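Practice problem 4.
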């Protein structure tokens, strides 16, 4: 579970839609991630789910109206709004969207929205025809105009047995967006190009040369960079991983395809991070039919692939940061320093691929970060955490 939520004050506004039951799961997940969740329900919402359900999931008292019977509730709208780090309105009904668009303040939820300076995320959920009605569209456009982030509903079968757009998104589709809203955007405005995963060098229709890279390290870097506000392009070899939210993914197979994709995006990038395991060699001949096993030995002649990182080093723009990776088994520091100099890098991340808890495929890693000024061994950590630590070092280099 990511640390982005821990200790953060998150107001979840729940309104009158059957999707309110799904938001109970969202609240439970946020509470488990150690967020301080305050649920505010409209009266219509209570027709679908009880306040007690939310209280038991959030661990805090559910707010159900401007002037609840609790003594200090009447100031809740100011306190909730002022202390919030994030306000999520989910599900957002057409009624609530209309009232927020017109700055109404007739209940605790609408007054909290007016009183807060935190990022506000609106998740509409309703029948497709209601969602597509011009009045609803106009109100949603107004909310976007106020700077509220509107998360488009999904398409699918609705509770009203109609197919169309109007479904509340799944938690997996919004989790990354909320985490980004809670993360300091210290990479805002930066264009980052990340490469990840292996390359596959075909031999015949059944065989190829490749390596053990899963892509996890590069995907973690892309996810962390997006969350910190960067615009991220991820050039990925074959990797069985879902694309991090907000990241532009470019899929490639061979080293030459990866070379062409990298060269297409490299000039526009402020920072290039090359974590892909690019095959140094490819088969000289690629056969249209499967080579008989008796002949495979003699037909496997190899030739060099382009060294993408070396070429990037030669064409590095002024002010651009070029970060390479090194997969080593021994002499990590010496090999890292050699590659740093040889390829004109600003930093190289060296990882030991001999250990069963660092390097290829595993969820953890331990990087040795070498720059021209320093050599720093990062703590053993998850690849997600390692990605953040590497980006922290990139920030230092940028300064
Ligand atoms: O993907 P995972 O399963 O999470 O594993 C992560 C990783 C081990 C693949 C990753 O942490 C890593 O070490 N990536 C670099 C692997 C690699 O190819 O290291 P290398 O020492 O062979 O290459 C050095 C650098 O040159 C790398 O930045 C590589 O992208 C680059 N290179 C290599 C060959 C080539 N033809 N072109 C290149 O650009």
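Answer key:
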């Amino acid at each position: 579970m990511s640390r982005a939520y821990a200790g953060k004050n998150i107001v979840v506004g729940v309104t009158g839609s059957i999707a309110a039951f799904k938001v109970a799961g969202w609240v439970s997940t946020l509470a488990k991630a150690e967020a301080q969740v305050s649920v505010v329900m409209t009266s219509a919402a209570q027709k679908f789910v009880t306040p007690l359900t939310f209280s038991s999931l959030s661990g805090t008292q559910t707010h159900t109206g401007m002037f609840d019977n609790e003594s200090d509730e009447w100031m809740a709208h100011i306190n909730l709004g002022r202390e919030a780090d994030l306000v999520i309105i989910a599900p957002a009904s057409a009624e609530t969207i209309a009232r927020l668009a017109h700055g109404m303040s007739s209940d605790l939820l609408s007054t909290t929205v007016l009183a807060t300076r935190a990022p506000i995320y609106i998740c509409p959920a309703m029948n497709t025809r209601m969602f597509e009605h011009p009045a609803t569209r106009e109100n949603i456009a107004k909310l976007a105009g106020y700077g509220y982030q509107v998360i488009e509903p999904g398409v699918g079968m609705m509770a009203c047995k109609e197919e169309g757009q109007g479904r509340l998104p799944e938690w997996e589709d919004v989790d990354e967006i909320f985490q980004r809203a809670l993360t300091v955007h210290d990479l805002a405005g930066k264009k980052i190009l990340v490469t990840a995963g292996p390359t596959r060098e075909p031999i015949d229709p059944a065989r190829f040369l490749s390596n053990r890279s899963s892509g996890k390290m590069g995907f973690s870097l892309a996810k962390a960079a997006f969350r910190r506000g960067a615009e991220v392009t991820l050039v990925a070899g074959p990797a069985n991983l879902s694309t991090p939210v907000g990241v532009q993914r470019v899929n490639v197979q061979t080293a030459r395809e990866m070379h062409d994709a990298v060269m297409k995006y490299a000039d526009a990038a402020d920072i290039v991070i090359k974590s892909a395991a690019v095959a140094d060699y490819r088969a000289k001949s690629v056969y249209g039919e499967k080579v008989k096993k008796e002949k495979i030995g003699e037909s496997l002649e190899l030739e060099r692939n382009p060294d993408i990182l070396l070429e990037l080093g030669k064409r590095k723009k002024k002010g651009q940061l070029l970060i390479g990776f090194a997969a080593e088994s021994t002499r990590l520091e010496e090999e890292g320093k050699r590659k740093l100099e040889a390829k004109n890098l600003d930093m190289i991340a060296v990882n030991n691929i001999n250990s069963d808890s660092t390097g290829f495929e595993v969820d953890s890693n331990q990087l040795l970060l070498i720059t021209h000024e320093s050599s720093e061994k990062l703590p053993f950590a998850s690849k997600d955490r390692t990605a953040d630590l590497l980006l922290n070092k990139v920030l230092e280099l940028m300064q």
